[in-house]
């Protein structure tokens, strides 16, 4: 690459080498996330290296920084913002130690002269700092409060003791370590400063364009450095914006991030869901490819999809509504009822996330319908039926992929499949269940929770959502003392203990309190449950839970589930 410049530099060379310019951490970057543990590792590594008395040719490698020269002739950091921020805090802690020295000498003044151009732009004649707010590293990232905290620390060297942000906590840590090292090594502590400035090296990768920097950024992170796909998408989307639209884009991204946090969904997941919307619109039912590769095709053409960010925001709001108790926003037309939510609850503990792709595509198709929830109820019943039954038939994610891709395209009208074909396919699925449903449920352990949850919701009188933290209760306990209790033997327990008819969902707290007592002892706790099926069990007339009871409950569950699947696999 003609516009790529790589060369190792010491910390002193890196920071002091950009005169009257800055390292800019742009607003589209991630917030500062380094915690005390990472700072401890950095400090310990440097301290141990310094204690080896490095010679002139000995260096300690601190990592890479990828940047490009922006329109203001500043180096805009694409990768390494966490690292460069931490180095700056460390250097400022060193300078604060020198400032606070009770007795100044030529060595202290010499070190201060070396540190000043690493932290601030200095007067080219005097070498002094004319303006301490003219710092070498300037952050535009995250909210103003935290950005201002970072700038204030570098400008003043002071910090609020009670502050909980990462900037303040890490600066205090470095300052404490400087003081501690100087106290324990009164004759060597200045050597540590020299080691950091002149023997710790960075590999700066300086690019002349943002595109090149992003390519390097992507390549480095594909090889193991931590980075989310959405970080690359954000940077690329930012580069697409006109100058007057960039601030609005950042605000929109922050809003989506906040919605995702409340809705317990990641931005990466939203881009995954949205990729299936794009595929469905294009009638693409081919094999799925990696998320980053998908969006980078044809010079990131998919990221230029009209209304991409507004629709991703709508998806975020939808999944926030699904995953939390937050009421739907007034400007949106849908509001999911208990009927819809109970089936979503069954899918939330499903073995993979492919159902979310179909649901997301359906949402985009019908989001503006005035009767969205009514339409969604019929749809989600079919979804839960298909995914549960298909996994019973073949417990593999590969068995559902093709059907998911085709149904996504069908929903958006980009694939024409005769309804009779689908009906015939679903009818054959149902026929496989009629005789062996319970046996299949017993075999498919990963599906037990979803099946028990669906059965509980189908029980007459269950009119409230079941807490997601419920546990699977064994009605006849897994741990029992008597070797032959009321006709039960060890052989019987092996056969009956894990049968579907011996399992029921039960609130965690009550389940703990009920312990491994026998049936009649646990009825009192069953009576306190808010799950209708458990309440029914508390009123069971018999004092013991026998093999025939498990067999009868197996039949009840089978009849209830088969009736539901028959109605919805059409």
UniProtKB/TrEMBL annotation:
<dbReference type="InterPro" id="IPR004919">
    <property type="entry name" value="GmrSD_N"/>
</dbReference>
<dbReference type="Pfam" id="PF03235">
    <property type="entry name" value="GmrSD_N"/>
</dbReference>
<feature type="domain" description="GmrSD restriction endonucleases N-terminal">
    <location>
        <begin position="11"/>
        <end position="237"/>
    </location>
</feature>
<feature type="domain" description="GmrSD restriction endonucleases C-terminal">
    <location>
        <begin position="443"/>
        <end position="557"/>
    </location>
</feature>
<protein>
    <recommendedName>
        <fullName>DUF262 domain-containing protein</fullName>
    </recommendedName>
</protein>
<dbReference type="InterPro" id="IPR011089">
    <property type="entry name" value="GmrSD_C"/>
</dbReference>
<dbReference type="Pfam" id="PF07510">
    <property type="entry name" value="GmrSD_C"/>
</dbReference>
